[in-house]
Amino acid sequence: MCGIIGYVGPDEVVPVLLDGLRRLEYRGYDSAGMAVLGHDEIGILRAAGKLGNLEQKAYHEPLHGKVGIGHTRWATHGAPTEANAHPQTDSGGQVAVVHNGILENYGRLRHELLDAGVELQSDTDTELIAQLLGREEGSLAERVLAVLPRLEGQYAVVAVHQAEPDVVVAFRNGPPLVIGLGEEENLVASDVTALLHRTRRVVYLENGDIAEIRRDALRLLDVSGGEIERAVDTLVWDAARVEKGGYRHFMLKEIFEQPDAIRNTVRAYLDQERRGVNLDGLGFSREELVRLRRIHLVACGTSWHACLVGKFVLEELTGLPTEVDYASEYRYRTPLVGDDVLVIGVTQSGETADTLAAMEMAREAGALLATVCNVRGSSAWRLAPSQILTQAGPEIGVASTKAFTTQLVAMVLIALGLRSARGLADETDAELVSGLQRLPQAVERALAIDDEIFALGTEMLADATDSLYLGRGILYPIALEGALKLKEISYLHAEGYPAGEMKHGPIALLQEGFPVVAVVPGGTNRNKLISNLMEARARGAAVLAVADEDADEIADVADLTLRVPKVHSLLQPVVTVVPLQLLAYHVAVELGLDVDQPRNLAKSVTVE
Ligand code: AGP
Question: Locate the SIS domain: which residues (predicted)?
């Protein structure tokens, strides 16, 4: 969602802001803008559409200054037009504001301002913040303190004021903001990818914090105006990992980074000597673990698919009944949660609003709370007392790939940690540990499928408007994930189904040439799925299968088969999803689409 960057330092600010916004592009946006504190007035540039449009404007209407704020907007209130792009200003043009989030009392504030005679220039809730700040008195931080009680909803706001040309002020309630502490310069951004190339020293703002940022000083206030301190964290991510590194797209690079991402995640939690994991009880006490009766997994999108796989893994390995919920549903129902439930929020970004709200709810209900998260220092990371960090490194492509496969690995690691703490460990654990150690090589082999095979697969899918992805058992969630990947980046409709359900509705879709992508499981489920495919073939469907090397019988029913190595059944989802990610990628490239920043999507969904 919206990207925010702010800078105070010795450099000309426009290139710094544009560079920061480029690095935030992956979050998804539909307009962009910047404000620069100049000598006489705040210079504002805004443009609808891609960042290139803003760059063009900056070239033709140059702004100069050393302090400024920039924004990429993902529209919520008002269409993605230039007038609605950020920064928004007050009527006098004295205050400029960029904002991520939604003001829930937008309607009331708007009417109050209109009744007071304010002429609003946009449809945005953001302008209301600028107008409110403009009507107060004192320094910008004092104005923020006065306005805060009037704002309801989620916001991360960065503002500048013409009267204080050396200050940027940031405040948040919900969406994240992080301050970058540099040499003779300080920055603020909506996430660390915009800061990494300038500094590794960061301060995460908490909800309610107000930051007054100067070139050589950072002052933090709480909502009552008292000075507070926050720890300085050092980032471990390497700036090179947020570059494409010779790949055509971030998504492709990230797909190929999966062996390393998995290797790092396994290594981080493997206890070599005991041939087990060092996640004993996930850090919960013995008494807490003895009380444990159930597990709830909450997440959105691709992370939710990881949870569906997690259910199979956790139930089989721990015997604990495991429920999986969409976070957006969980937070609005009345789940039976108490201190005998372990709630795990699974989130790549650690900033997904619904997942955070579900986790918060579980914490208030007294549940044991953990997170599987890819971003150290993110909101989920700080909310959960128990954290399992997937070591995928920064994921820039909107379509999640390496974060997903490391989440699948994390599910197995968690199950092993719970088994060891509950005294369940036996030879299964050693088998899984060795399977986890060999997994990166298996994924490498899954990545080695010939491009010509993908060309054939692409032909089958790219010409159709719809397709059906079928799976069974632990590979059924992989069918859902394969379909989601295709939908997200190729805009082709794809439906994921458990194969046994085909006869109960979706079979009506089948006709000559209709593509059916079969994710072929092992065990008894294999023959069942093959029977389902026979039924599909009988109705003219074109079958593309993803199957392990042992599944010879698939050749009789599939028009095209993508082979993956056979690994431990609980790890099979990890290798099986790889060709489906690549398939979606090739289809989107063939259709000439923007693979890394698909339309309407945001990488980090910080509003509900
Ligand atoms: C994945 O390809 C998606 N872009 C999306 O479904 C994503 O998984 C979802 O928004 C959840 O994000 P999170 O893992 O950061 O919480």
Answer: 285-424, 457-598
Does residue 347 have its Cβ closer than 6 Å to ligand 1? yes
Whether residue 372 has its Cβ less than 6 Å from ligand 1: no
- Name the percent of the chain lying above pLDDT 70: 99
Give distance in angstroms: CA of 268 to centre of ligand 1.
Answer: 23
User: Mind listing the pLDDT tens digit for each residue in 271-324?
Assistant: 766 577 887 778 888 889 888 999 999 999 999 999 999 999 999 999 999 999
CATH number assigned to the domain comprising residue 128: 3.60.20.10
Ligand 1 pocket: which of 26, 302, 478, 606 to mutate (most atoms within 8 A of CB):
302
Q: Residue 127: CA atoms inside 13 Å, Cβ hemisphere, count?
A: 22
Report CA(365)–ligand 1 centroid distance (Å): 26
C-alpha 560/C-alpha 533 separation (Å) is 13
Give the mean pLDDT of the chain.
93
Average pLDDT over residues 367-389: 94
CA distance 362 to 367: 5
State mean pLDDT over 206-220.
Answer: 96
Catalytic residue annotation = 2, 603
Q: State the average pLDDT over residues 584-598.
A: 93
- Dist. CA 492–CA 197, nearest whole Å: 36
Q: What are phi and psi of 447, to 5 degrees?
A: -80, -15
Q: How many structural domains is the chain composed of?
A: 3
State the burial class of residue 552 (Cβ atoms within 10 Å of its Cβ: 0-12, 13-18, 19+).
exposed
Residue nearest to atom 8 of ligand 1 (CA): 302
Q: Is residue 598 part of a domain?
A: no
Indicate if ligand 1 lies below 6 Å from the C-beta of 581: no
Which pLDDT score is estimated for 259? 95
Query: Are 394 and 458 found together in one domain?
Result: no
pLDDT at 312: 98
Structural domain for 235, as ranges = 3-242
DSSP annotation of 122 reads S
Same domain assignment for residues 99 and 195: yes
Q: Does a structural domain hold residue 607? A: no
